[in-house]
Write a structure and sequence with these properties.
With 341 residues, the chain is an all-alpha fold. The protein is built from 14 helices and no strands.
Length: 341
């Protein structure tokens, strides 16, 4: 999917920890709206010509646009396969079409409603329970989805920072410091480290407790250790591929390092903004990265607009369609159960 993967990272802690307080969400959104307003007012004289943006969008190569849509659809299917594989590891079978429908629907809920990340978790739990999955298995699936999605995105971010010459040196120093910190932590707390982390309050403790519970509910094989992160990474890479195809469709020449860095920066900004789907913040962050790399304002705006039409609005429309189908059409037979591996 990509599934607006930024929102899926936001779902990461919802099964295990408390959702952010409504007041915190409101303050965060008001702050981001104020920042966007300041940027627009300050740089209004430098904003690209709407006519030029429209000309680039309408002149996009249809073949590459089809490729972009195909890649985004494949991204959604990769995430659906990840859900299906985790459920199968816990002894529940889910058909791929139903998994795809649930993936689209939960993404629509997450990316369009206030508090969508929490509502998405509740919606997914209800859908999987209707299909016969047990509550511990559902909770474990949601936690591991979040863990694999977040970890692979962080790995993608590291690659983006190290590949870009402007960020390579500071990123290398930060990674070295983190590696040293982890090594010292393991060295001086070799026993009971997981128990110590689980006993800590806040989101970290909640996440560790959730992972420990998930390991008890889902039995993963050595093959799963490669398949599950591979599907999570494939989900992100196909979404990046959609962005690359949009660049090619508009005839914009931009290096792969810049595309990846702009993608990672935009998704991270969308998560921190606490706005459903990162709407507004994602677009500004991605466009700013591209402009900073030498792309014209009109070209950056056209690329971002087309990419978001496909990866956000297109997925949103399809997701609410899937929501209607799942809620108003018979759910069919319950999934088969088989012993955990």
């Amino acid at each position: 999917m990509a599934a607006e993967r930024a929102s899926e990272m936001g779902d990461a802690e919802a099964p295990a920890g408390r959702p952010p307080r409504p007041r915190t969400r409101l303050v965060g959104r008001l702050f981001m709206i104020a920042c966007v307003a300041v940027v627009v007012v300050t740089f209004r004289d430098r904003l690209p010509d709407p006519g030029e943006i429209w000309a680039l969008m309408t002149g996009a190569h249809p073949g590459w646009l089809i490729v972009a849509v195909t890649l985004e659809t494949s991204s959604m299917r990769a995430y659906a396969r990840l859900i299906r594989h985790l459920l199968a590891a816990g002894g529940a079978r889910l058909t791929l079409p139903r998994a795809v429908a649930v993936t689209y629907a939960r993404t629509a809920v997450s990316n369009s409603l206030p508090g969508g990340q929490v509502l998405s978790v509740a919606y997914t739990t209800r859908q999987l329970r209707v299909l016969g999955a047990t509550t511990p298995l559902i909770a474990a699936t949601l936690v591991l989805l979040a863990v694999f999605s977040t970890m692979t995105f962080l790995a993608l971010g590291v690659v983006a920072l190290l590949a870009e010459p402007a960020t390579r040196a500071p990123a290398a120093w930060i990674l070295a410091a983190l590696a040293l910190t982890v090594a010292l932590t393991v060295r001086f707390r070799p026993r009971g480290l997981v128990r110590w982390l689980a006993g800590r309050g806040g989101r970290m403790g909640a996440m560790v407790r959730g992972v420990c519970d998930a390991r008890a509910a889902i039995s993963l094989t050595r093959r799963d250790a490669f398949v599950l992160p591979g599907l999570a990474l494939l989900n992100w890479l196909l979404d990046v591929g959609c962005l690359v195809a949009v660049c090619l469709a508009t005839g914009v020449s931009v290096g792969p390092n810049t595309v990846l860095l702009g993608y990672v920066a935009a998704k991270a900004a969308g998560v921190m903004a606490l706005v459903p789907g990162g709407l507004g913040v994602t677009e500004i962050g991605m466009a700013a990265t591209f402009v900073g790399a030498g792309m014209t304002g009109a070209a950056a705006a056209a690329v971002v607009a087309i990419y978001r039409l496909i990866s956000y609005w297109g997925v949103l429309i399809a997701g609410w369609g899937a929501w209607l189908v799942l809620n108003f059409i018979a759910t069919g037979a319950r999934p088969e159960r088989r012993p955990s591996r």
